[in-house]
Amino acid sequence: MTPPKLFYHSTDRIKFHNLVNQEITLNIKLKTHEDIDNTVDKFTSIIQSAAWASQSKSTPTFNNISLLPIYIRSLITDKRRARARYQTSRLPSHKALYNKLSNSLKKQLLKYKSDIFEQKLSNLSSSDGSLWRETNKLLQYKYSLPPLTKIDNSAAITDKDKAETFRQHLAEIFKPHPDIYNPNLTSKIIQYLDCPMPLHLPEKCFTPNELKIAIQKYSTKKTPGFDLITAEVARCLPKKAILFLTYLFNATLQLSYFPLLWKFSNIVMIPKPPKHTQKD
Predict the structure, then answer these.
(1) pTM reported for the whole predicted model
(2) How far is CA 15 from the centre of its chain?
(3) Which of 55, 164, 188, 230 lies 20 to 30 Å from 211 when distance is taken between CA atoms?
């Protein structure tokens, strides 16, 4: 299953840029933690709505039949006509013709695939690395992963059972440290947090230019978070959106508050082939 994205090949970047520029307003209130959370939620909704509205109409795709030679396409047409004729009349002669065309089509397809494979092998070369890549694909061992099992050793079939199994596994692994409930340690931490902060100059605020440079330097190969916003999406944002983000980042810095929506994450469980999936 293909993971959801905001940008596809058919996305109109210019339309996305204009839609975000129309929806963004710089007259925002960022004085409390709730204001920051609401602003982040609104900003995420604007970007997602603009990206989905910028999807171009799907272009007609060509199926595998259109890529076949003309003689095979003619056989496919004749076979379909013979099948329709036999389904209408149910005559033995029409059935014999349909079976003959079907067997002929199978032989021609098999020969065509064999010729394509031979041509592919003949084009392999050690100079451009194609021979090594094809050999690596053939020799690569494909592990067969066993089904996920629950605590009672029954199979986790539904998505709900799998999610519950993962939840129990992660809760068992990521337990709090035993010394976290130590009264002496807790009192020391509270005492340290209640101490007055030393005098220092206020933190330097972010500038729109710094934010724009950071977006340009960010890798486009990074996996998106819960909001599906990637570096490719951020690079298409208008100047007004960059200013909007600058206000938001400076507000989080001044209030020492990290937005709640940015704390969400997607946990992907990746099985390691040599390990036992039920225990490790």
Answers:
(1) 0.59
(2) 22
(3) 55
Which amino acid makes up residue 176? P
List pLDDT tens digits, range 66-102. 577 888 888 999 999 999 999 999 999 999 999 999 9
Alpha helices in 90-201 (DSSP H): 92-122, 130-139, 159-173, 183-194
* H or E, element range at 28: none
Cβ atoms within 10 A of the Cβ of 221, count?
A: 8
Q: Tell me the three state secondary structure of residue 126.
A: coil
Looking from the CA of 91 toward its CB, the CA atoms found within 13 Å total: 8
pLDDT in tens, 22-53: 999 999 899 999 999 999 999 999 999 999 99
Length of the chain: 280
Element (H, E) at 37: helix 33-53
Residue 194 has, within 13 A of its CA and on its CB side, a CA count of: 6
Residue with tokens 């390691």: 272
Interatomic CA distance for residues 71 and 105, integer angstroms: 10
How far are the Cα atoms of 64, 68, 77, 118, 131 from residue 121, in angstroms, in the given order?
A: 21, 20, 31, 5, 8
Residue 263, classed as helix, strand or coil, is helix
**What are 220's two structure tokens?**
């486009």
The rounded distance, in Å, linking the Cα atoms of 274 and 145 is 10
